[in-house]
Amino acid sequence: MYTKLSPNSRRLATQRPGGRASRFLQMEENIRQKSLKT
Fold first, then answer.
1. Choosing a second label site near 18 at 20 to 30 A (CA), which of 24, 28, 29, 36?
2. How far are the Cα atoms of 8, 17, 21, 30, 37 from residue 26, in angstroms, in the given order?
3. DSSP letter string over 1-38?
4. What digits encode the pLDDT tens for the residues 6-27?
5. pTM over the 0.70 mark
6. Domain ranges within the chain, ordered by starting residue
7. CA-CA distance, 7 to 13, in Å (whole number)?
């Protein structure tokens, strides 16, 4: 069963190494941090 990730589970996915989702979410978070800095 695959359910849509809630904000909490999204954060957990980023902490799990080697996951496709984690890699994508890390990129997403990097972009977010860059936009916050500017």
1. 36
2. 15, 11, 8, 6, 17
3. ---PPPHHHHHHHHHSTT-HHHHHHHHHHHHHHHHHH-
4. 555 555 555 555 566 667 778 8
5. no
6. 12-37
7. 10
